[in-house]
Amino acid sequence: MNELFSRWKTSVVNNIASRTNAYSLGKLKKCYESITEDFEASLSWPRDIQNTDIPVSLQQIGDLLVNEQAADPNQESDLDAGCCTEYCINNDIFGSLVRMSEADVPKGYRSEVIRFMSTLVSLIDSKYLIQKAFHGPVLLLMRWYSLQKGIEFDEDMLDLEFNIASKIRESPHLLNIFFTKDFAPKNVTIESIEKGKQEEDPMVVVAAPAQLSSDYRFLLFEQLLRFIHMDDKRADVARTACLFILELATGELQHYIAQSDLSTIVVAGLGGLFSQLPQQIPPKASSTSSYEFESFKNDLNAFLDLLEFVQEILIKCPSRVITVAILDYLKLSFLDNIVHASVLNASDFDGSAHSCLFYLHEMMKVIREDQLSNLFCRFLLRGDDDDDDHDDLQQPSPAAAAGSDLKLHMRDIVVSKIGSLSEDVSVAALRLIHTMLAYHSRHCLYRIIEKLPYKKLTQGFIEIKQPDHLNLSMDIHQHLNIVSRYFALIPQEEYPDQTDIRTTLQAYLEDAQQALATHNQKLLTARAAAFLPHQPRTSSLPTARHRDSRPVSAFGPISKTSVLDAKAREQMIELSRDPTLRKFMDKLTNFFSHSYEINLAVTGVFSQLVTMPQPLLYMYLYSADILVDSQQTSLYTIFVKLLKEAEDKATVLSDFEFSLEKTKTDMLNGRLQKKSRRRTLGGSTHVPDLEEEFVKNCLVLHEFIKEALAALVLHGSRDYDHISYI
After folding, report:
1. For residues 679 and 458, which has the higher predicted lDDT (pLDDT)?
2. Model confidence pLDDT, tens digit, residues 690-711
């Protein structure tokens, strides 16, 4: 009985499926006939596509094919197909639609067919694309589009090409359909393509991979390259599609792409967009200049988006041939010719120097990829003693070598801008250095502070300057003595519970912990594979959370020496002569001679320097007056001097404590910059501009002391600086 019921059920299901298939096939034929009739009628009666049933019929055909696939997604064979799909394959329906749309009659028919094929490529299973009835019409559209000069079909064709690239990324074997040898003559037409079609089974399979030659073409990639330099939606689509292809750039394909115009287009696009940026940054506060500022933001974003695309190529492309070609062209064409010339010709007093430094700052914020970071840091901070600025495959000419001594390096320009008479330029230079230290410390620290002892290590094609010093060991009593000095500098009013949690020492400890771990992890990640065969040693920290998250040493096994033996003392004295570090220290020493904005930038640079994984540097900064001699300048001696100046000045100001607390509240709530240059505090008491600036500087000083103390406390927990408890 059960067997009889099962047979009956199977028969019913098969009958229903058969009727459904017959209905779907009949509907598809009817839609195709409707399209043909509308097309033939439009030949003698021109009309717009929207006045026909073609868009609806194409939509229905697409729905039938997609629904048929969705109804039976687990076919036993890759060549299994439903009745509608099989009918389209056997009768070359898609090829007929493409050929009918060639004349774009009725008007808009071509665009409708392109969108139809794009949707089909996006939704159908990739196994159907290996059949000529599917990919043949797509190739025909691409060849036709390569002959077009207008922009009418750009967006529709880009969507189609994006969907093709996406399918290739999902199923790399499809690459052999679109990346083939070019047998067609150069002056190709639609008719010649059709006449030259080989008589093949419509169930054609993918062409087998072959050895590349100069005759190979990748029409899909070539057409995408036309848009990657633009700054609109088309560029976004083309760049994403290019990245899909570049992810597969291994083997022979990488040579084709390396010889293409990819490097030229992206770097020339960067140069063009950079040259369009204004020499003076427009103000954003004035309502009359709001349009100008918005236009500036759009131009800047377009430039940074293209730079991010270059970075994405370097991250995702597995081919060293392609990435080296891009980096070389980026250095020679963009950095050396365009950026260097712009900075060299910029003036401090017309806004051009400020804008150039601002653009460099924005670029360094965007850059994260290691090779790109190394390239930009070498360009910005190359010194006279650097010999790694030449191409690995090219030797400098004798004339170039002779003239190199006369060349003004970018480092000289950037460092000199710190002392500029223009406040905007000085702030921009300090912010640029802060950003480089924050995001690119392993490539820039030893180029900014040149007197730090280092050794050059080669990682792949990148030369990195790394610490070359003894691992300094400090007695616990020495460490506590140094820490206690800085604790004594914190004002007593900072201890009560009413203090804003964002300005407590605990908050700064958490920030310092994160900064120390980040800088150390960058070095560890870069060197772990090649230079760290040993296991990380364990070290105690105040809490388990810190112990679990602490990175291992980035420096490898090096000997320890107590503070300070002859070598360490000699290194620290040499460090005290570093001109850039002295420039920073002088800037901080004259704290109250600068504006609030400059002091924020200066303390930002020091907040990065004190968290660098370089024991010699932070020991010098914190305790040179103890470890070397009392005549040396350290952060402590500077803080003592500045606090004394602040105390003397505060005694002659009325309501200083109230003004300080009010300014602190405004700063934490983001209202400080919106206040006028002349404020009312406590009824009728007016604070003049200079007094207001002094109050803000006092606030910055107090907060920076806490920030420096937090970094000092946590430095003892790092495994590259040892504190002896015995």
Report:
1. 458
2. 888 888 899 899 989 999 998 8
Using the CB atoms, write b or e for 151-173: b if 16+ within 10 Å.
Answer: eebbbbbbbbbbbbbbbbbeeee
From 36-40, 236-240, 417-421, 548-552, the region with the lowest mean pLDDT: 548-552
Tell me the two tokens of residue 173.
């074997």
* Structure confidence at residue 393 as a pLDDT band (50, 70, 90): very low
Q: How confident is the model at residue 240 (pLDDT cuts 50, 70, 90)?
A: very high
Within 10 A of 200 (CB to CB), how many other CB atoms are there? 10
Cα–Cα distances in angstroms (integers) from residue 175 to residues 124, 179, 197, 207, in the given order = 17, 6, 20, 10
Q: What is the pLDDT of residue 480?
A: 84
Secondary structure of residue 115 in the 3-state scheme: helix
DSSP 632-689: S--HHHHHHHHHHHHHHHHTTSTTHHHHHHHHHHHHHTT-GGGS-SSEEETTTEEE-H
Give the C-alpha distances (Å, rounded to integers) separating 692 from 661, 662, 678, 688. Answer: 12, 11, 8, 6
pTM: 0.81
What is the tens place of the pLDDT at every residue in 429-454?
999 999 999 999 989 999 999 998 86
Check if the beta carbon of residue 658 is closer than 8 Å to that of residue 682: yes
For CA atoms 80, 85, 90, 95, the dihedral sign is: negative
Residue with tokens 């260097």: 340
Three-state SS letters, 512-568: HHHHHHHHHHHHHHHHHHHHCCCCCCCCCCCCHHHHHHCCCCCCCCCCEEECCCHHH
Tokens of 405: 């001594």
Structure confidence at residue 657 as a pLDDT band (50, 70, 90):
confident
Biggest distance spanned by C-alpha atoms of the chain: 108
- Residue 455: strand pairing partners: 466
Amino acid at 662: K
CB 338 within 8 A of CB 269: no
Alpha carbons 55 and 119: distance in angstroms, whole number? 13
Strand 471-475 with 560-562, pairing: parallel
Q: Is pLDDT larger for residue 724 or for residue 209? A: 724
For 206, list phi and psi in degrees, rounded to 5. -70, 140
Q: What is residue 107's DSSP assignment?
A: B
Structure tokens at 372: 């790109």
- Distance, CA of 624 to CA of 634 (rounded, Å): 5
pLDDT band, residue 659 (cuts 50/70/90): confident
Report the run of H or E that residue 709 belongs to, with start and end: helix 689-715
For residue 149, what are the contacts with CB-CB under 8 A and spacing of at least 6?
A: none
Q: Would you call 275 exposed, middle or buried from its count of C-beta atoms within 10 A (0-12, 13-18, 19+)?
A: exposed
Question: pLDDT-based confidence at 468, cuts 50/70/90?
Answer: low
Contacts of 235 (CB under 8 A, 6+ apart): 227, 228, 229, 305, 306
Q: Provide the angle, in degrees to the nearest 10, between the axes of the packed helices 93-100 and 132-146.
A: 20
Cis peptide before 140 (omega within 30 of 0): no
| C-alpha distances out from residue 301 to 132, 304, 365, Å | 42, 5, 13
End-to-end CA, the chain = 90
**Percentage of residues in the chain having pLDDT higher than 90:** 47
